[in-house]
Amino acid sequence: LSVNALNEHITADVLPDEKMYFNIAEKILEPTMNNNYSLISEYAKDVQEILNSKANIDVKAVKPKFNSNKLKTLISIISNAEDFEHAKRLWNEPVITNAISIVDDTAKANAQLHFNLGLKPIIVRRASFGCCKWCRSLAGVKQYSPTMDRDIFRRHQNCRCTVMYDPRNNNGKVQDVYTKEW
């Protein structure tokens, strides 16, 4: 995991004034986050292609676009930290959360593609054990549409809930995420 590599190789003693300046954060995090995106999005696309095949949908899966806004925000937050130890605490969870959100973005991109092809994609959000009230309120199954509430794809730090799009769930039965009614 890239967070472990960052923690192992970036230490206060190698930084000027023991501070993570913007240009340093950018030079370290940009290739790390781009590498995470390349690896995770390719793997998630491959998984989606397997799911498509099992659902007899002869369509190539798509990768989501790289979210450069998340990268810029993370670099800004880390470079504004008081000292290196504070910066180090700030990068752990955002890098992990961003990695998980790449999988969510892949589900969203492929659900959009299938919706455009006339299918009725179903998004499943499963709450993780001990998750927060907000995440529990989003758990469930919802039919995808471009105008649907996008909160089902959102996550916060430490969120380990799962968001999935399996085209085999395309049976027309939908459970409303909020009311839990079928």
Explain how this protein is built.
The chain has helices spanning 2-9, 22-54, 68-79, 84-116, 133-138, and strands at 122-126, 140-143, 162-165. With 182 residues, the chain is mainly alpha-helical. It has 5 helices and 3 strands; from the N terminus they run H-H-H-H-E-H-E-E. Helix 2 (22-54) packs antiparallel against helix 3, helix 2 (22-54) packs parallel to helix 4 and helix 3 runs antiparallel to helix 4. It has a 3-stranded antiparallel β-sheet with strand order 2-1-3. The protein is 51% helix and 7% strand. Residues 172-178 have low confidence and may be disordered.
Give structural attributes.
182 residues, mainly alpha, three-stranded antiparallel sheet, 51% helix
Summarize the structure.
This protein is mainly alpha-helical and 182 residues long.
- Uncertain residue ranges: 172-178
State the order of secondary-structure elements, H for helix, E for strand: HHHHEHEE
Give the strand content. 5-15%
Number of strands: 3
Percent of residues in helices comes to 40-55%
Task: Give the biggest beta sheet.
Answer: 3 strands, antiparallel
Please tally the helical runs, counting DSSP H or I stretches of 4 or more residues.
5
Task: Annotate the secondary structure layout.
Elements: H1 2-9, H2 22-54, H3 68-79, H4 84-116, E1 122-126, H5 133-138, E2 140-143, E3 162-165
Helix pairs in contact: 2-3, 2-4, 3-4
